[in-house]
Design goal:
Elements lengths: L5 H29 L7 H9 L5 H35 L11 H14 L2 H4 L3 H21 L5 H24 L4 H12 L7 H18 L3 H7 L3 H6 L4 H23 L5 H9 L7 H25 L8 H24 L1
Length: about 350
């Protein structure tokens, strides 16, 4: 394969991938609206949801399954996109959005809201608490690492803030006023897109979209980074500014998504890995494909948990962890084989 024809072939496969994933997502969106533990008459529900007086079936579609479907698609896309960004920026295939503390910061913010019982009196308190937690974690990483930090310092600062946030969550769980509060916090942390309303979807959307917008147009800079920081600088890329802009974008997008869904792990790690070979290992080309792949994966996982033959519905975060953890182990073993 010559160096010159690789981009053309990759570009073709990227556009093919985007088309295929768009079709897959369209199918999954329809399936997600109509599949559930209890079958409902699909066409009747559709007709009634367009009518003036809502019926039980139309309410199931519009009030239960539509918010769930939309939140799964947007949160999955965010996790897939931000995973690809972090792996490209840190040039590390094991990087994920949680590495910079945004997910655990969001979890701490949300758990604090549940601990103080604020969610019951003011419903947007839970997602807002998650977003504030994510941004505060990001600010602490910035203060800890310093403006001109190296990648290693940034990762270490992220790991430190992660550990601190997890320790604080453990403390709040330990001091919880009642077993019910503990149960509420633990269930939230398991990660789920169920039992949300459209209001929560609208709350998560601005921060997520702002994060996506901040990431737009940085694909070429990430491609340049694959050649090394010195080469990237010689191409006119301001590494420090790029790093902080992408960190802020990831914190905003992931923080907003996680604040509603709870912790859903491994999508940001697994999806970019699976798709990277298909786009010629170019980080810039991976971004849109990874976003679509993330949306498809979370929609699929959510449909799977609904159809899971168990007494109670398992959380989607548990399912993604069950798939992601063995994959993570496989990556470590693969890296070790390469190192040997």
């Amino acid at each position: 394969m010559s160096h010159h024809d690789a981009p053309t072939r990759s570009e073709f496969s990227q556009s093919t991938l985007i088309t295929l994933f768009s079709l897959l997502i369209a199918l999954l969106l329809v399936a997600s609206l109509f599949l559930g533990t209890n079958p409902i008459p699909v066409f009747q529900a559709l007709r009634e949801s367009l009518g003036e007086s809502p019926s039980v079936y139309s309410l199931i579609i519009t009030e239960v399954r539509l918010p769930r479907t939309l939140i799964a698609a947007v949160a999955g896309a965010t996790l897939g996109l931000c995973g690809a960004v972090m792996q490209g920026l840190l040039r590390n295939p094991l990087a994920s959005p949680g590495l910079i503390g945004s997910s655990s910061g969001a979890a701490l913010g949300a758990v604090a809201v549940l601990y103080f019982g604020l969610g019951g009196s003011f419903w947007p308190a839970l997602p807002l608490g998650g977003m504030i937690g994510s941004l505060l974690a990001m600010l602490l990483v910035y203060l800890l690492a310093g403006r001109d930090a190296s990648i290693v310092t940034l990762i270490l600062a992220g790991v430190a803030i992660n550990s601190m946030a997890l320790a604080m969550i453990s403390l709040l769980l330990n001091l919880a006023p009642s077993p019910y509060a503990v149960r509420e916090m633990v269930l939230w942390m398991l990660g789920s897109v169920a039992n949300h309303s459209l209001n929560e979807f609208w709350i998560m959307l601005p921060g997520t979209l702002l994060g996506w917008l901040l990431l737009l147009g940085h694909g070429r800079a990430l491609d340049g980074l694959t050649l090394g920081e010195d080469t990237a600088r010689s191409m006119g890329i301001n590494i420090v500014r790029l790093r902080w802009k992408l960190f802020l974008a990831v914190a905003l997008a992931v923080g907003s998504a996680v604040s509603v869904t709870g912790a859903i792990g491994f999508i940001g790690l697994v999806v970019p890995h699976l798709l990277r070979p298909l786009v010629g290992y170019m980080p810039g080309r991976l971004l849109p494909v990874s976003a679509l792949g993330g949306a498809a994966m979370l929609l699929l996982a959510d449909i799977a948990v609904r159809l899971f033959p168990a007494g109670t519905e398992i959380k989607v975060g548990v399912l993604t962890s069950l798939v992601g953890a063995p994959f993570f182990l496989y990556l470590i073993l693969k890296t070790r084989r390469v190192a040997l």
